[in-house]
Predict the structure.
Amino acid sequence: MTVIDKAGRIIIQLVLRQVFKLIKINYMKRINNISLSLLIALFVIVAGCDKNEVYKTKEADPEVHFTGGAIQSYSVVVNPAPAYTVTVGTTDVADVDRTVTFHVSSPTGATSGNQYVLSNSTGILTIPAGQATASFSVLANFASYSSGRKDTLVFTLDEPSVKVAGFSNVLKLALRGPCFEGDIVASDFLGVYARTIETFATNPPYGPYTTTVSNVTPVTATSANVTVTNIWDNGWGPITFLLDWTDPANRIATVVSQAAISGSDAGDLNATYAGQTIAVRPFAGTPGTFSWCNGTLTLKMQLGVTNVGYFNALYTVNMAR
């Protein structure tokens, strides 16, 4: 509209009048009331437009919101735990201080003064003049999260002086302690363990070599069978172990007894038994263990000769990623 000067506007008005006249004379019977209304409206708009007039536009109201993702994670892994910073931002910058109010709740039951402490206990946050952000911190109590506890804090915003945005107006902060062996996901044991080292009897350690957990089968909520391939690194078939973390502080790995391991040769243990297969069973009083957090398996067992007997020596396989 602003590119039309006075002379141009007069010419357009004259042209429109002529067009309107011709249409009215020749096509009146074919034009409905709506078409006439549109032509009249066009005439009025063009005739009444003034390039020198300033037309006001409405500016959007400033809004406040959280910065970062809607779900954020606070890892409480050292003692004392460093504080976690929560930042609030605005969509503009003002020349006066502005305040916003935040509220915190916890669907998991975390309470201020026990599981965490806020640096701003009033819930009123000031965004200084000339700035677009302000922040407060959450300090977790390490002792609350050292044994597997998990919490979620939910922060919401309220006014008084700045409108709450329709986006990023709720922040969920997940509080988690160090890796907890009671949270084991059995399928995580699947895969390659390229740093496997074994010892048998008084022989020097052998390795590193590669073993693989090829299958995991849950048994209960706190136990699972894992199948390990390439133990001994000489063509042995797979061997199964039961992992039990019913007591997270005392995790037990027990070999499932097997009378004959396919692909094995007892001559590797004693030349007298060459050509015979190897048997395997738990070594009495000496179970293995494992760590989900560290990605390791310590497997202990007793080796023997199928249908003959067992050697009185401990065989240990240490598997690491």
Q: What stands out?
A: Residues 19 and 101 are 62 Å apart (CA to CA). The chain has a mean pLDDT of 86. The first strand starts at residue 63 and ends at 66.
